Amino acid sequence: MTQLIPTTGYLIRAINEWCVDNGLTPHLLVKVDGSTRVPMAYVKDGEIVLNINYTAVKDLHIDNDAVVFSARFNGVAQHVYVPIWRVAGIFSRENGQGMFFEVSEGTAPPEISQPKIDTAAPVVDGAKKSHLKVVK
Questions:
Q1: For the whole model, what pTM was predicted?
Q2: Would you list the domain boundaries of the chain?
Q3: Neighbour tally for 112: CB within 10 Å
Q4: Which residues contact 2 (CB under 8 A, 6 or more apart)?
Q5: Hey, is 17 helix, strand or coil?
Q6: Fold for domain 8-106?
Q7: How confident is the model at residue 73 (pLDDT cuts 50, 70, 90)?
Q8: d(CA 62, CA 65)
Q9: Which of 34, 43, 39, 32 is closest to 57 using CA atoms?
Q10: Which of 10, 79, 86, 133 is the most buried (most CB within 10 A)?
């Protein structure tokens, strides 16, 4: 059986949407390491809390690999990159409701085995058969 895609990215997107739909302010709790790109002046005890509300960030993109956006910190625009495996939680500033995740120590992502896809064309009578179809 192939390894499933981790749920973390999906859950982060869902809680973010829930916060926005309810007029709440979503915040990310990030465990900072060498793989994160955040303003280090705001890191305390190896963690940073980031406001990811649409009014506070520009070009927010959350996928299964990372959270990426631009924001101003003390008036200076900075690009922020947070790998999904470094997100320790997403919660609303107003009531603290959200979801928190276990973050393993180290700078490498957890091993995720991707499904194996056979890109070789099938061999028929010693010759490769094309995978293309004729469309008329």
A1: 0.76
A2: 8-106
A3: 11
A4: 113, 114, 115, 116
A5: helix
A6: SH3 type barrels. (2.30.30)
A7: very high
A8: 8
A9: 39
A10: 86
